[in-house]
Amino acid sequence: MNVIVDLCVVPMGVGVSVGKYVAECQRVLEEAGLEHQLHAYGTNIEGEWDEVFAAIKQCHERVHAMGAPRITTSIKVGTRTDRTQTMQDKVASVRKK
Amino acid sequence: MNVIVDLCVVPMGVGVSVGKYVAECQRVLEEAGLEHQLHAYGTNIEGEWDEVFAAIKQCHERVHAMGAPRITTSIKVGTRTDRTQTMQDKVASVRKK
Amino acid sequence: MNVIVDLCVVPMGVGVSVGKYVAECQRVLEEAGLEHQLHAYGTNIEGEWDEVFAAIKQCHERVHAMGAPRITTSIKVGTRTDRTQTMQDKVASVRKK
Amino acid sequence: MNVIVDLCVVPMGVGVSVGKYVAECQRVLEEAGLEHQLHAYGTNIEGEWDEVFAAIKQCHERVHAMGAPRITTSIKVGTRTDRTQTMQDKVASVRKK
Hints:
Chains A, B, C, D: Belongs to the UPF0045 family. Chains A, B, C, D: This is MTH1187 family thiamine-binding protein. Four copies of one chain form a homotetramer. Chain A is 41% helix and 35% strand. By secondary structure, chain A is an alpha+beta fold. Chain A has a single domain (2-96), classed as Alpha-Beta Plaits (2-Layer Sandwich). In chain A, a hairpin with a 2-residue loop joins strand 2 (35-39) and strand 3 (42-48). In chain A, 52% of the residues are buried. Strand 4 of chain A pairs antiparallel with strand 4 of chain B.
C-alpha cells in the first residue's frame, strides 16, 4: 500500500530551537531512500506504508538518542485504491485548477 | 517504545456519513487488544509502537475493503524516555492543576 | 457557523512538563463558556466559529504570557451544512454501530 | 501576533477528487494577500493571526457554497515571542544543518 505522508516531529524539553532534530529526521529519510520534500511546517514523504512508518519510528529513536526526553509528532497519511498519485500529482492537480 | 496516539481516520468518496467506517476501526483496535478511548474527533490509543501502527495500517486496509477509495488520516504520536505515562495520567495531570 | 474542534496546544522551550499550560487553556475555555471535553491528546470544543477561534487565540496569548516563548498548536475543525451535530452525537453515532 | 500556519481542508460528501475545492482555497488566500505556499499535503500560510484565521473561515464558507456538505480541516499554528521567523527561515534553518 503506497502512502503520501506529512510528518512534523516536535521534540519537547530541549529548548526553543529544534532545527537540528528536524535535520536529523531528514537524514533518516535520505538514508531510507524515501522520496521527501521539506516545507515550512513539516515534510512530505512518499513510499510503501511499512518503509515510511519504519523511518518515522527511527526519527523518534534518533531524536530521543540526541537527548530529547519527549516527542510529539503529527502525521497525515493518505492512501487510495482508485489510482496511483504522487506528491507532484497532488500539487499539479490543484495548480491546474 | 510505548506510545500514546490520537487517531482520526477520514474516508473520502463515500458520502457524508462515515460512522460505520470509524466503528470498524474501533473493532480493529479491540481485536488488537489495544487500550483505546473514542472521543468526538478521534480515538486515543496506548501501546507498543509496532502494535499500534500495525493496527492503524489495518484500519486503512479494512476501510478500503469496505469500499472507501480514498482515506486521509491524522495521527498524533507521543513518546517519552523520562518516564512512563498513560492516557489517564495525562488527563489527571491537567485536571489536578 | 457551528464548529466541532479538536485542540492540542504544545508550548515549547519550557521543559518537558506542560500540564499547567494545558490547564490554563481549560480555564480560557471555561471563561468563554464553551462546551469542551478534555481527552488524553487534546480537547474537543463545540461552538460558534468566531467564539471558538477567539478562545484559541487567547490560549496562545495566555500561554505566551506564562513564559512560553514558542507554541505549536494542532487544530481540527469540522463544519457541516447538511445537519447540526454535537460532540455527543458523533460519539453516539459510532458507538451505535 | 504573527503566525505560521499549515492548512489542510478536506471536503467530505463530494466524491474522491477534491482538487477544485483546494484550488478555491488558494484563491481565498491570494485575495486576502497572504503569503502562502502549496505543498503535497496542505498549504503553509504566514501573516497576522486575525487575517489568517479570517481567510481560513472564508475557505470553509466558500467550499460549503460550492456544494460540500461537510468539511474537516487540519490546522497547525506556530507562534513565538522570542524572535520573528518566516516560513523561509524555518526551511533554511533545517537545510543549513
